[in-house]
Amino acid sequence: MASSAFTTALILFLVTSSLLCISNAGRTLTTLVEEQPLAMTYHKGALLTGNISVNLIFYGKFSASQKAIISDFVASLSPLPHRKDSLEPSVTTWWKTLAKYFSASRTRLPKLALGKQLLDEECSLGRSLREADLVKLAARGAPRNAVNVVLTAADVAVEGFCMSRCGTHGASSRSKAGGRFAYVWVGNSAEQCPGQCAWPFHQPMYGPQAPPLVAPNGDVGADGMVINLAGLLAGVATNPFGNGFFQGPKEAPLEAATACTGVYGKGAYPGYAGDLLVDPATGASYNAHGARGRKYLVPALFDPATSSCTLV
Q1: How far apart are CA 233 and CA 272, in angstroms?
Q2: How far apart are CA 215 and CA 89, in angstroms?
Q3: Which pTM value belongs to this model?
Q4: For residues 195 and 39, is the Cβ–Cβ distance under 8 A?
């Protein structure tokens, strides 16, 4: 997907003097909370359906804890085995809110499952990547029925990272065999731009200066990556090939998560993520329970039926 959403985002930024959003081109410099669009239009293209493997390609050095935070989040997207002590709101429930998009297109919400986890700690393509490099890395995952997620470490520079985006999603070209996969890239911003891509777990670089929240898993970079990954997975599911659900121009679309920029809880406004749950033991803020007792912060998603943001 093109990252020209930055142009639109920059205009919004200049008007409101605030900061970040999640879009199909990842977080870009724009408002923390945008005025909601009136409609989410379906452009009759294919959506992700069926059983989809989410393969994780870790590029660069990630600690075991960081890899577990991210892989447990992906595992949380699938319904957990029924347990009497299962807690709500959950990541699974959050993902199911996308079902309205699929009923509108007469298809079914895809079932995501954690797939392969690949490591490239030595950075075989170097520590400065372009978009074409991201596609090459994503191709190391499954060739079809997959979302291949490239996760770059804190010391890896990616074209446009921090300057115009925190992540992106797109799709591979069709092969002769007919295989095609969707891909997502998310960067760890802990060292390069935490005030842009790890908000609200870090003091924002621009806009209203509210105190940062405590990250639910104790890692500003990894917990920030989860926020971006969550929004991008919602975008890639509902607009995988650029002709699914979005509002506005195709070159700078607002997608399921983008349309609810900066909203994580009720009462959100620029510089304030909203009313969230707080872990009494750690003081960490979150809005969804995940696998293995994890807690996560996920973005609100736009409800195409009510034209409003849906919280977990």
Answers
A1: 24
A2: 17
A3: 0.88
A4: no
The per-residue pLDDT for range 53-68, each reduced to its tens digit, is: 999 999 999 999 999 9
Q: Map out the domains of the chain as residue ranges.
A: 5-310
Q: Are 191 and 182 in contact (CB under 8 A)?
A: no
pLDDT over 90 (residue 42): yes
The alpha carbons of the chain give a radius of gyration, in whole angstroms, of 18
Provide CB contacts within 8 A for 15, sequence distance 6+. Answer: none
The pLDDT of residue 6? 34
Handedness of CA 13, 16, 19, 23 (dihedral sign): negative
H-helix segments, the chain: 5-16, 64-76, 91-96, 99-104, 131-138, 194-197, 220-238
With bands split at pLDDT 50, 70 and 90, how would you rate the model's confidence at 21?
Answer: very low
Of 132, 174, 138, give the one whose Cα is nearest residue 46. Answer: 174
Q: Output the pLDDT for position 82.
A: 56
Residue pair 70/288 in contact (Cβ under 8 Å)? The answer is no
